[in-house]
Design a protein that fits this description.
The complex is a heterodimer. By secondary structure, chain A is of the alpha+beta class. Chain A contains 2 helices and 4 strands. Chain A has one domain. Chain A has a 4-stranded mixed beta sheet with strand order 1-2-4-3, covered by helices on one side. Classes of the chains: A alpha+beta, B alpha/beta.
Chain lengths: ~100, ~525
């Protein structure tokens, strides 16, 4: 998947995560995460973001994520949606989710 | 009649009968009227500064405060600000609890005015900073009963108590409300201030509402009070009390409450003439509503309700379901209003409530419903530190009532957002698992293995049970396995159990730079 522009998904509500993706040509995936549960789950949230991007074939991106205690399934959904928006695509592969 | 002086020495055993010698005349009669005396010969001191001077307070001494004004309190900040201004140093601040309004204490700690803190809890910026290593001397955390016992026994010696009171007369009879016809502010019970008044060397009452002698009824008698200071601003009524504590409409909490009530009924402790205490958390408060329904259906009477009292308990008292209320702390205006007008709504002090040194009211409890931040697989409870390891709560009467009640029921949602409530090991042990009988969550009920009697009864009643370990795993399946909190070596708080033995410590948190 190729990112064309900035894509955002999510809200600042409790138990949600607001994910903003920006396309980059090089440098891998750079994640700036702030979380209300940083100490306990920060590492895990970053891993889920990274894994979700890898599954979508995105190797370079800058990620800004503001987490308010989202579960892993929510993190995956928000990252995917942000990626599809940034790539201007709507051909969701529902079966793979 | 012979001269008493001449026969005094000949009285058998006179040394054992009197130590004060012979009567040498009475002191002069007071001639003025009572009204004149009240105005001129009284304990009122012109300023807080003058009162402090007269108490003889010195560097290194212990000053105490109560927390009945909660988030509206201005007494701690006002007094400690004055003590700082007067140049005192190295003081111990022994409050019954501290809240987020006490953030100004941070400066006084940094400046060496306050070097030791004793409290039931800490919140807000002060709690954050203490968790980050603000103080050299660890904060001493005691339960309400533990503090009462420490004051009674002398473990915690108070040199000067500064007690805010919403009503006081010129001689120091003070209370948390007033039966005078006025619109004064009210905090209801002054239960946590009364041991301080009784045992402190010197007692200063700060009031914004001077009433005529005698201020009746009083929580603190004039015999316990040395000085009265009148000041406009003891607290903000909005922060001291809100209207009736509102019922939760959160379906998760209602489910927990319904289950908790079912557990109590099935356990056999809901019978005609029972006793209870309800915590003020959403789910524990809602449990009262279901208990009420059961009482009406089964025609049961509650002999007494204890504790922090809410409007919920008051309305059950007023509709005749609860005979007596024992009130150590009034949580809302309805409770304060009831204390003022209902003769069987009795104000009690912290020692009467929960001191382990003698039979106290918590020992007469059939059941208590308590909230928790964390519960571990050994049933230990944490209500003091948050999931990030930062202090953000208060012990309150948690360990006192869990220990005293025949059945302690702890209610909590399985998860709060991404934070599990049921964990392998709690961050901080406040209430030991050996005193916790049943844990009720929205996704299952677990009974302590030491209570097979309760387990059998719940099973017979058809309440589905699971092991505490299963609840922990269910929580983990939803939120994942949290990384352990990273602490530094430094101990910032010491947690004492209700008998004032050390049960746990709180360490400084480690943070990413």
């Amino acid at each position: 998947m190729k990112l064309m522009k900035t894509g955002t998904a999510g809200t600042m509500e409790s138990n949600d995560i607001m994910v903003t993706l920006e396309p980059k040509e090089t440098g891998g995936v750079q994640i700036a995460l702030s979380s209300s549960v940083m100490q306990q789950f920060g590492r895990q949230i970053e891993a889920v973001i990274r894994q979700t991007l890898t599954e979508l074939g995105i190797a370079h991106a800058s990620v800004d994520a503001v987490d308010k205690g989202a579960l892993d399934c929510t993190v995956r959904a928000r990252v995917r949606t942000a990626a599809y928006r940034a790539a201007d695509q709507q051909n969701y592969d529902w079966g793979a989710m | 009649m012979a001269d008493i002086k001449s026969i005094y020495a000949g009285i058998p055993h006179i040394d054992e009968i009197s130590q004060h010698g012979v009567f040498e005349g009475s002191k002069g009669k007071r001639m003025g009227t009572f009204a004149e005396r009240s105005a001129s010969q009284n304990k009122i001191v012109d300023s807080l500064e003058e009162a402090v001077r007269r108490t003889g307070l010195k560097d290194g001494m212990t000053v105490s405060f109560h927390h009945h004004f909660r988030n509206g309190d201005n007494v701690v900040n006002l007094v400690v600000g004055k003590l700082a201004e007067m140049g005192f140093r190295n003081l111990t601040l022994a409050a019954s609890s501290l809240t987020s309004v006490h953030a100004p204490l941070i400066e006084h700690v940094k400046n060496g005015v306050i070097t030791h803190i004793e409290t039931s809890g800490l919140r807000g910026e002060l709690a954050e900073q203490i968790s980050r290593g603000l103080m050299d001397f660890p904060v001493v955390f005691r339960s309400h009963g533990g503090r009462g016992a420490a004051i009674e026994s002398g473990d915690l010696h108070i040199d000067v108590a500064f007690l805010g009171a919403p009503s006081c007369d010129p001689y120091g009879n003070a209370n948390g409300y007033s039966r005078e016809e006025d619109q004064s502010i009210s905090c209801g019970s002054l239960g946590y201030a009364r041991p301080d008044a009784k045992y402190a060397d010197k007692v200063v009452v700060l009031t914004n509402n001077l009433v005529k002698f005698p201020n009746s009824p009083y929580a603190i008698p004039s015999s316990n009070v040395d000085y009265v200071v009148i000041t406009d601003n003891i607290g903000d009524p909005k922060g001291i009390m809100s209207g009736a504590t509102r019922f939760t409409t959160n379906p998760k909490e209602l489910l927990i409450a319904k289950t908790a009530a079912d557990v109590i009924r099935a356990s056999g402790y809901l019978y005609d003439g029972f006793s209870m205490q309800m915590g003020s958390g959403g789910a524990s408060l809602a449990t009262a509503r279901y208990i009420r329904q059961m009482m009406i259906e089964e025609r049961l009477q509650c002999r007494f309700a204890l504790g922090g009292i809410t409007g919920q308990i008051v309305s059950m008292h007023e509709e005749g379901l609860i005979d007596r209320i024992l009130d150590v702390q009034s949580f809302d205006l309805d409770a304060a209003e009831s204390l003022k007008k209902n003769r069987f709504h009795q104000q009690i002090d912290a020692c009467y409530y929960a001191s382990y040194l003698h039979e106290s009211a918590v020992n007469q409890l059939d059941f208590v419903v308590l909230s928790a931040l964390e519960i571990d697989t050994a049933f230990n409870i944490n209500v003091l530190t948050g999931s990030d390891g930062v202090i953000r709560g208060a012990i309150g009467g948690h360990p006192d009532t869990a220990d005293g009640a025949s059945l302690s029921v702890v209610v909590a949602p399985l998860t709060r957002g991404r934070i599990p409530s049921i964990v392998q090991t709690v961050n901080t042990i406040v209430t030991p698992g050996s005193t916790v009988d049943v844990v009720v969550t929205d996704q299952g009920v677990a009974v302590h293995p030491d209570r097979p009697d309760v387990e059998v009864k719940l099973r017979d009643a058809g309440i589905p049970l699971c092991a505490i370990q299963e609840l922990k795993e269910r929580a983990e399946a939803i939120v994942g396995k949290p990384d352990p909190i990273r602490y530094k070596e430094k101990i910032v708080g010491v947690v004492l159990y209700r008998n004032n033995t050390v049960i746990d410590v709180v360490r400084q948190i480690e943070e990413d730079q």
